[in-house]
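Aim 2 progress update. The chain analyzed this quarter is reproduced below.
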Amino acid sequence: MASAAAPAAGERPAPPAAPRPDVAELESRNYPLMIVGVMAASLLQILDTTIANVALPHMQSSLGATVDTVTWVLTSYIIASAVALPLTGWLADRIGARLLFIGSVAGFILASMLCGIAQNLEEMVAFRALQGVAGAFIAPLSQSFMLDATRPSRHPQIMAVWGMGIMIGPILGPILGGWLTETANWRWVFFVNLPVGLGSLAILIAYLPKRPKRERRFDLAGFMLLAVALAAFQLLLDRGQQEDWLASGEIWIYLLLTLSATWMVVIHFATARAPMFERKLFADRNFAIALAFMIVIGIVMFAVMALLPPMLQNLFGYGVIDTGIVLMPRGVGILVSMQVSGLLMRRGVDARPVVASGFLICAVSLWQMAHWSLAVDEMHVIVSGLLQGLGMGLVFIPLQVSAFATLSPALRTDGSSLLNLFRSLGASAGIAWMTVLLARNIQTSHADLGANITAATGSLVDFSATDRFQALGDTAITLMDAEVNRQAAMIAYVDDFWLMMWITLAAAPLALLMRKNARPAGPVVLSE
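Predicted structure tokens:
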């Protein structure tokens, strides 16, 4: 039987679809300066996800908070950002992407100033939530504007520029935050956003192009369910360790809310006539795989960056500045490999082996870290960090290019918001997961090591004589316990590095399931 698509006898076959012209979707009056303004805004936003962490002890005393309550300075930002992020696409269509971007940057600057002058914990938490809402729209809008204002043949290069800010920001955040806190005051962690943010705002007002608005129904039910799922999940991660996880009724509430709301979100998005996110996004194989990769990137990159500074400072005695110096090569590796991967994409190299190679390089660096001991020197930290940066840079750009290659421009803002959301969720889950394993493995390793330190095992301390030396005996026991703590902590860090290595190796083959890059022949018609 002839195929239904075959032409009838005597008819000429339909000509192939014309390729998409190599022309930018939007045109800016000053493209280079617009890129500078967009990048400055996105770098400020990504820096603020980590820059305040090192200033928490100083905020605690200044704001009259406790160890438990001061963490809400971080939690409020994370929850507000996660809940607001899915709204990016709808708001951009409803009020205009240009107005939303400029308003977000202005709101972020205002919230940063308010955080810097906060007088108590309640004000700080409220202003950080405002900062999280304003900052949530910056990353996806910056990515979509840079893609729309750049011709398709230059997308790999412009994604390399955008990726540098996204990948290096979390590395520079703790370093810059520590330096500002030590040399000035913790309030400068927020005040530093003002001069750069105002410059970025002026550029965006002058040169950011307009994007057409589009009538789009707001999926209230979908948003409410997703907001409950995201907020409960973030609270579960942030409060779990403090409340002893499933031993707490509070954590059980968060877990049940997360599971039930997530289940309802999936059903709603699969059956609703006009869901918050177009189902075409999840039907695109490259984009769906990119979402899974974003979770892995969040776990590996952000969890490593959360573990290394306290490890270097507490176990190896590094200062804040020294820690920044030995971690800096990671950023250098990202810069170098992003340029290389961008060049490979421009020359039409298949993204799949590049992404897989990047994950394998990251796995090698984690394998090196899993063999560390308390005797490791600076060079080992520098080499493994440089190698990991090279791997991450090879992953990020080809992944972004592949994810957007087959999406219509109308879907870019929604797609970018989902990619950023999944990366954020991966980072939150990864940091919480690795921190929990670290704490529990320290206890287990301490018990295992302590059980073997007895007079029968040839210990340097004669435990039978400690009572006679009183204070000196107690000091000897304390020193022995401190060394056991150090060794147990190092074992726990190594266990975390092993786990992240296996996660990275398991993710690498997913790259082979992606399709080779191909741009759509025509625009995608969106459902109303």
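DSSP finds 20 helices and no strands in the chain. The mean pLDDT is 83. These observations will guide the mutagenesis experiments scheduled for the next reporting period.
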